[in-house]
Specification:
The chain is an all-alpha fold. It has a domain of about 130 residues: Tetracycline Repressor, domain 2 (Orthogonal Bundle), CATH 1.10.357.10. The protein is built from nine helices and no strands. Helix 5 runs parallel beside helix 8. The N and C termini lie far apart (about 60 Å). This is TetR/AcrR family transcriptional regulator.
Length: about 180
Protein backbone atom coordinates (compact mmCIF):
# COMPACT_ATOMS: atom_id res chain seq x y z
CA UNK A 1 0.00 0.00 0.00
CA UNK A 2 1.38 3.37 -1.03
CA UNK A 3 1.21 6.07 1.62
CA UNK A 4 -0.97 9.00 0.70
CA UNK A 5 1.02 12.20 0.57
CA UNK A 6 -0.56 15.58 0.97
CA UNK A 7 0.60 18.62 -0.97
CA UNK A 8 3.39 20.60 0.62
CA UNK A 9 3.19 24.25 1.64
CA UNK A 10 4.26 25.57 -1.78
CA UNK A 11 1.55 23.63 -3.61
CA UNK A 12 -1.07 24.56 -1.00
CA UNK A 13 -0.18 28.24 -1.37
CA UNK A 14 -0.44 28.01 -5.16
CA UNK A 15 -3.82 26.26 -4.94
CA UNK A 16 -5.16 28.71 -2.36
CA UNK A 17 -3.84 31.68 -4.32
CA UNK A 18 -5.35 30.45 -7.56
CA UNK A 19 -8.75 29.93 -5.95
CA UNK A 20 -8.80 33.12 -3.87
CA UNK A 21 -7.30 35.47 -6.47
CA UNK A 22 -9.89 34.28 -9.00
CA UNK A 23 -12.89 34.36 -6.68
CA UNK A 24 -12.01 37.48 -4.66
CA UNK A 25 -9.39 39.34 -6.68
CA UNK A 26 -5.69 39.99 -6.23
CA UNK A 27 -6.36 42.27 -3.27
CA UNK A 28 -7.14 39.29 -1.04
CA UNK A 29 -5.10 39.58 2.13
CA UNK A 30 -2.06 37.55 3.06
CA UNK A 31 -3.77 36.29 6.21
CA UNK A 32 -6.66 34.87 4.16
CA UNK A 33 -4.17 33.15 1.84
CA UNK A 34 -2.25 31.64 4.74
CA UNK A 35 -5.43 30.45 6.41
CA UNK A 36 -6.80 28.90 3.22
CA UNK A 37 -3.47 27.17 2.50
CA UNK A 38 -3.01 26.20 6.14
CA UNK A 39 0.61 27.36 6.13
CA UNK A 40 2.77 29.64 8.22
CA UNK A 41 3.70 33.11 6.97
CA UNK A 42 7.28 31.95 6.64
CA UNK A 43 6.26 29.48 3.90
CA UNK A 44 5.00 32.32 1.71
CA UNK A 45 8.31 34.17 1.97
CA UNK A 46 10.47 31.05 1.58
CA UNK A 47 8.72 29.86 -1.56
CA UNK A 48 7.66 33.10 -3.28
CA UNK A 49 9.51 35.99 -1.65
CA UNK A 50 6.29 37.90 -1.04
CA UNK A 51 2.65 38.09 -2.10
CA UNK A 52 3.62 39.59 -5.47
CA UNK A 53 5.81 36.55 -6.14
CA UNK A 54 2.89 34.28 -5.28
CA UNK A 55 0.60 36.22 -7.61
CA UNK A 56 3.08 35.82 -10.48
CA UNK A 57 3.51 32.10 -9.74
CA UNK A 58 -0.26 31.59 -9.59
CA UNK A 59 -0.69 33.31 -12.94
CA UNK A 60 2.08 31.20 -14.46
CA UNK A 61 0.40 28.03 -13.24
CA UNK A 62 -3.07 29.19 -14.30
CA UNK A 63 -1.72 30.14 -17.72
CA UNK A 64 -0.63 26.57 -18.41
CA UNK A 65 -4.04 25.28 -17.33
CA UNK A 66 -5.90 27.91 -19.34
CA UNK A 67 -3.89 27.26 -22.49
CA UNK A 68 -4.65 23.55 -22.09
CA UNK A 69 -8.35 24.51 -21.85
CA UNK A 70 -8.07 26.43 -25.14
CA UNK A 71 -6.31 23.49 -26.80
CA UNK A 72 -9.04 21.17 -25.56
CA UNK A 73 -11.75 23.54 -26.78
CA UNK A 74 -10.14 23.59 -30.23
CA UNK A 75 -9.94 19.81 -30.28
CA UNK A 76 -13.72 19.58 -30.63
CA UNK A 77 -13.40 19.58 -34.44
CA UNK A 78 -10.82 18.64 -37.03
CA UNK A 79 -11.20 21.40 -39.64
CA UNK A 80 -9.46 24.65 -38.56
CA UNK A 81 -12.42 26.95 -39.23
CA UNK A 82 -14.76 24.69 -37.27
CA UNK A 83 -12.16 24.45 -34.50
CA UNK A 84 -12.02 28.22 -34.13
CA UNK A 85 -15.78 28.69 -34.27
CA UNK A 86 -16.24 25.85 -31.78
CA UNK A 87 -13.94 27.70 -29.41
CA UNK A 88 -16.59 30.41 -29.08
CA UNK A 89 -19.23 27.78 -28.33
CA UNK A 90 -17.05 26.51 -25.49
CA UNK A 91 -16.44 30.06 -24.25
CA UNK A 92 -20.20 30.61 -24.16
CA UNK A 93 -20.58 27.47 -22.03
CA UNK A 94 -17.75 28.62 -19.76
CA UNK A 95 -19.20 32.06 -19.05
CA UNK A 96 -22.56 30.49 -18.21
CA UNK A 97 -21.13 28.46 -15.31
CA UNK A 98 -22.11 29.75 -11.87
CA UNK A 99 -18.55 30.20 -10.63
CA UNK A 100 -17.33 32.13 -13.67
CA UNK A 101 -15.72 35.40 -12.55
CA UNK A 102 -14.26 36.76 -15.79
CA UNK A 103 -10.80 36.83 -17.28
CA UNK A 104 -8.15 36.47 -14.58
CA UNK A 105 -5.57 38.22 -16.80
CA UNK A 106 -7.74 41.24 -17.46
CA UNK A 107 -8.69 41.51 -13.78
CA UNK A 108 -5.04 41.22 -12.75
CA UNK A 109 -3.93 43.92 -15.16
CA UNK A 110 -6.60 46.24 -13.76
CA UNK A 111 -5.54 45.47 -10.19
CA UNK A 112 -1.93 46.59 -10.57
CA UNK A 113 -1.29 50.09 -11.89
CA UNK A 114 2.50 49.70 -11.72
CA UNK A 115 3.58 48.39 -15.15
CA UNK A 116 6.65 46.82 -13.50
CA UNK A 117 4.56 44.56 -11.25
CA UNK A 118 5.60 40.94 -11.93
CA UNK A 119 2.01 39.93 -12.65
CA UNK A 120 2.06 41.92 -15.89
CA UNK A 121 4.86 39.77 -17.31
CA UNK A 122 2.69 36.70 -16.71
CA UNK A 123 -0.44 38.23 -18.24
CA UNK A 124 1.59 39.34 -21.27
CA UNK A 125 3.11 35.87 -21.65
CA UNK A 126 -0.34 34.28 -21.54
CA UNK A 127 -1.67 36.63 -24.19
CA UNK A 128 1.33 36.00 -26.46
CA UNK A 129 0.78 32.25 -26.11
CA UNK A 130 -2.92 32.55 -26.88
CA UNK A 131 -2.12 34.76 -29.86
CA UNK A 132 0.36 32.16 -31.16
CA UNK A 133 -2.26 29.43 -30.76
CA UNK A 134 -4.76 31.48 -32.79
CA UNK A 135 -2.17 32.25 -35.48
CA UNK A 136 -1.38 28.53 -35.73
CA UNK A 137 -5.04 27.72 -36.36
CA UNK A 138 -5.47 30.55 -38.84
CA UNK A 139 -2.38 29.50 -40.77
CA UNK A 140 -3.69 25.93 -40.86
CA UNK A 141 -6.86 27.17 -42.52
CA UNK A 142 -4.87 29.27 -44.98
CA UNK A 143 -6.16 32.64 -43.77
CA UNK A 144 -4.72 35.52 -45.81
CA UNK A 145 -3.86 37.63 -42.73
CA UNK A 146 -3.35 35.29 -39.75
CA UNK A 147 -1.64 37.83 -37.46
CA UNK A 148 -4.35 40.46 -37.89
CA UNK A 149 -7.16 37.90 -37.68
CA UNK A 150 -5.61 36.49 -34.49
CA UNK A 151 -5.74 39.98 -32.96
CA UNK A 152 -9.39 40.27 -33.92
CA UNK A 153 -10.28 36.83 -32.55
CA UNK A 154 -8.41 37.58 -29.34
CA UNK A 155 -10.42 40.77 -28.94
CA UNK A 156 -13.61 38.71 -29.35
CA UNK A 157 -12.38 36.20 -26.78
CA UNK A 158 -11.59 38.91 -24.22
CA UNK A 159 -14.90 40.62 -24.93
CA UNK A 160 -16.76 37.36 -24.38
CA UNK A 161 -15.04 36.87 -21.03
CA UNK A 162 -15.71 40.44 -19.87
CA UNK A 163 -19.36 40.51 -20.95
CA UNK A 164 -19.86 37.00 -19.60
CA UNK A 165 -18.72 38.16 -16.18
CA UNK A 166 -20.96 41.21 -16.11
CA UNK A 167 -24.22 40.25 -17.81
CA UNK A 168 -26.03 37.20 -16.49
CA UNK A 169 -28.28 35.39 -18.90
CA UNK A 170 -26.67 36.74 -22.05
CA UNK A 171 -24.72 34.59 -24.47
CA UNK A 172 -21.74 36.68 -25.53
CA UNK A 173 -20.01 33.64 -26.99
CA UNK A 174 -22.81 33.27 -29.53
CA UNK A 175 -22.49 36.89 -30.65
CA UNK A 176 -18.68 36.61 -30.72
CA UNK A 177 -18.97 33.41 -32.78
CA UNK A 178 -20.98 35.27 -35.42
CA UNK A 179 -18.32 37.99 -35.56
CA UNK A 180 -15.55 35.38 -35.63
CA UNK A 181 -17.15 33.84 -38.72
CA UNK A 182 -16.78 37.23 -40.46
CA UNK A 183 -13.10 37.41 -39.45
CA UNK A 184 -12.50 33.87 -40.70
CA UNK A 185 -14.21 34.51 -44.02
Amino acid sequence: MTPRTSPGPRERLLAAGQQLFYSQGASVGVDALLKEANVARRSLYEHFGDKDGLIAAVLHRASAEDLAWYENALAGATEPRARLLGLFDRLDELVATPDFRGCRYFATDLSFADPAHPAHAETDAFRRSLHALLVRELEAMGHAHPERAAEQLHLLIEGTLVVGATQDGHHPGRAARDLAAVVLD
